[in-house]
Automatic annotation (TrEMBL):
PROSITE patterns: PPM_2
InterPro entries, A to Z: PP2C (IPR015655), PPM-type-like_dom_sf (IPR036457), PPM-type_phosphatase-like_dom (IPR001932)
Superkingdom as given in the UniProt entry: Eukaryota
Biological classification of the source: Eukaryota, Viridiplantae, Streptophyta, Embryophyta, Tracheophyta
A molecular-function term among this protein's GO annotations: protein serine/threonine phosphatase activity
Coiled coil: none
Name used for this protein in its record: PPM-type phosphatase domain-containing protein
Residue span, PPM-type phosphatase domain: 58-276
Gene that encodes the chain: LOC113871693
CDD domains hit by this protein: PP2Cc
Length: 277
């Protein structure tokens, strides 16, 4: 039996959920334990949208989703941040077309990426049809599926982004990113080049969809799922540096969101931190 949380929050009004932290990093846990028993903690923070240009109050807020499913020896976590336009549509699709199917572990690993991609493509097409929107219209969402603490399936739409922190280095999940199995120095070099290449490029990609999967290894510390309100005022590595020393993911999410607010971000500010302990 899984559970599902969908949240709409006022500015800086918080709730905690599912936090249990012993202060130890994932790579220091006993190797004999099954990977799906490794604790995954998370926290989130949503800031009320700024006033619209005409001065009226914007009462639409980002949706934050956390869902856990246990199927025999398979543990599934699903996390998502979406703007008000998308809402919980992707989550509902995943619930009916994936989680409710009670698939075997081999099918879960094989079909997770495919189903998540179909969910986003279907929702995007339906929203465009309903609102008569063009290709460049701004829709935003970021989703992460964690399978047995070993595999990530990640989807990003628009300017909502997922950043993975490995050994203190930020890696953005984009279509051109290739997971490296080389040593740490090569990872750092790649991250530095990635940051330089992104420095002078506008991040807005309209409603572009990126879906990919990758492994969770001993260097994987935490993930940041965040709206464009975070990324328009700080770079990937800057966000990682800001919260890497904060082991409580709820505190980390609050810190990141408040920093974006202080920097006067003009877009919606929401973030969800997933830490592998």
């Amino acid at each position: 039996m899984g559970f599902y949380l969908r949240l709409k929050l006022k500015a800086f009004r918080l709730k905690r959920f599912l936090l249990g932290h012993d202060g130890r990093r994932r790579k220091h846990m006993q190797a004999k334990k099954p990977s799906w028993m490794m604790p995954i903690t998370h926290g989130y923070h949503v800031v009320e949208h700024n006033l619209t240009r005409d001065g009226s109050d914007d009462t639409d807020f980002d949706s934050v989703v956390a869902q856990r499913e246990q199927m025999d020896h398979t543990e599934l976590w699903y996390f998502e941040i979406s703007d008000a336009l998308i809402g919980d549509r992707v989550t509902k699709y995943m619930q009916s077309h994936f989680f409710d199917k009670k698939l075997e572990e081999s099918h879960i690993r094989r079909k997770g990426k495919e189903t998540l991609k179909r969910a986003y493509l279907g929702v995007r097409a339906k929203i465009r049809e309903e609102h008569k929107l063009e290709e460049t219209s701004r829709m935003g969402s970021a989703s992460v599926m964690v399978i047995n603490g070993e595999k990530l399936v990640i989807a990003n739409l628009g300017d909502y982004r997922t950043v993975v922190c490995r050994d203190g280095i930020a890696y953005q999940t984009t279509g051109s990113y290739q997971q490296s199995t080389q040593r740490h120095w090569s990872r750092r070099l790649f991250a530095a080049c990635q940051s330089r290449n992104a420095a002078g490029v506008k991040h807005s990609r309209g409603s572009e969809l990126v879906v990919r999967s990758e492994r969770i290894d001993s260097d994987t510390e935490f993930l940041i799922l965040a709206s464009n309100g975070i990324w328009e005022v700080m770079k990937n590595q800057e966000a990682v540096n800001l919260i890497c020393h904060i082991e409580d993911p709820q505190e980390a999410a609050e810190c990141l969101a408040k920093e974006a607010f202080i920097r006067m971000s003009k877009s919606s500010i929401s973030c969800l931190i997933i830490r592998f302990d």
